[in-house]
Amino acid sequence: MKKLLLAASFALLALSAAAKSNDNNLDTLVVTTNPQMHCSSCENRIKQNIRFVSGTKKITTSISAQQVTIIYDRRKASPDDYANAFAKIGYKITLKQ
Fold it and tell me: CA 55, CA 71: separation in Å to the nearest integer?
């Protein structure tokens, strides 16, 4: 029984360490678009198309702030990948300060 508990403890520790190392590879990109987003249709178009960039974890949009926030795995994508993806749907992006 002790061996089983010890093995389970090591397994949990290993999973925890793996999850933390994956978080270290996440990065956040905050951009504005040109043309600006005017409606929920604009937001949906961005979310539906940009999600296909490899490594994308989460996309949030805000019409009032005119910004798109993307959380992504930097091992799989770069800001240039997102610039290209936005260009394919008719937007130019600028990094938001």
Answer: 9
Query: What is the C-alpha separation between 68 and 76, in angstroms, rounded?
Result: 19
What pLDDT digit, counting tens, does each position of 5-60 carry?
Answer: 555 555 566 655 555 555 789 999 999 999 999 999 999 999 999 999 999 999 99
SS3 for 93? strand
CB atoms within 10 A of CB 73: 15
Q: Can you give the pTM of this predicted structure?
A: 0.76
Sign of the alpha-carbon torsion through 53, 56, 60, 66: negative
Distances in Å between the Cα of 11 and the Cα atoms of 3, 15, 24, 55 are 12, 6, 21, 26
CB atoms near residue 97 (< 10 Å): 5
> Using one digit for the tens of pLDDT, what is the confidence trace for 72-86?
999 999 999 999 999
User: Residue 29: beta bridge partners?
Assistant: 70
